[in-house]
Amino acid sequence: MARQLKIEIAESAELLEKSLKKAKHASHKERLQMLWWLKTGQVTQHHELGQLLGRSPATITRWLQQYRQGGLEKLLEVRTAPGAQKKIQGEALEKLKHRLNSPEGFHSYREIVEWLDLECGLKIKYDTVNRFVREKLKAKLKVSQLRKQEQKEALIENLQPIYVWQESA
Questions:
Q1: Rg of the chain over CA atoms, in angstroms?
Q2: Considering only CA atoms, which of 85, 83, 104, 82 is closest in space to residue 93?
C-alpha cells in the first residue's frame, strides 16, 4: 500500500495559490505547488507527489522535512554557493584604489598586473585585472591630457594633403 501523508499545512489554500502565482524561482513554484495540492486534498500519497512533480521520493521527503522544521520560510530558502574568494582584497585593494585615484595612475592594465606582482606579491592574470578594475572598481586608466594633445598635434603635422584645390583664373 502507498504511503499516506500526514502533515499539517499552516498556510491557507488562498495564500499558497497567490504565492504560487507570484513565485519567480522554479524551485519555489514546485514546492508551493506541492503544499497547495496537499492543502486542497488533491494529492494524498507520497508517490503521487513525486510523479506529478517529476521528483524522486527522497526529494519529496526532504522538502516535507524542511517544511516540518521551519515552515514555509525554511522550505523556500534558496541556498547558493559562496563562489571564489576575491583575489584583490584588503590592503592590496586599498593600495590599488589609491594608486588609481592618484595623478600618476596607470597607463595600461599590463602595468597594473606588474605593479600588483611587485608591490603586493599577487600574481593575477591580465583578464582578471582588466575586468576587476573596469567592472568592480569602475576605474579608468590615467592617460595624461598633455600626451593626448602631443599625439594629436603630431598626427596633424604628418598629414599630407590628398588633393590640392586650385581655382581656375
A1: 32
A2: 85
Q: Which backbone phi and psi does 45 adopt, to 5 degrees?
A: -120, 145
How do residues 140-153 score in pLDDT, each as one tens digit? 886 555 566 677 77
77 residue type, one letter: E
Question: What's the pLDDT tens digit per position in 110-142?
Answer: 999 999 999 889 999 999 999 999 998 888 886
80: left (phi over 0), alpha (psi -120 to 50) or beta: beta
DSSP SS3 for 4: strand
Q: Could you tell me the pTM of the whole model?
A: 0.51
Residue ranges with strand state E in the chain: none
Residue type at position 137:
L
User: Could you tell me if 53 and 36 are in contact, meaning their C-beta atoms sit under 8 angstroms apart?
Assistant: no
Residue from 147, 148, 146, 142 nearest 112 by CA? 142
What gap in Å lies between CA 37 and CA 50, rounded to an integer?
12
72 within 8 A of 52, measured Cβ to Cβ? no
* Torsions phi, psi for 25 (to 5 deg): -90, 140
| 50 Cβ contact partners less than 8 Å away, ≥ 6 residues apart | 56, 57, 59, 60
β-partners of residue 109 are: none
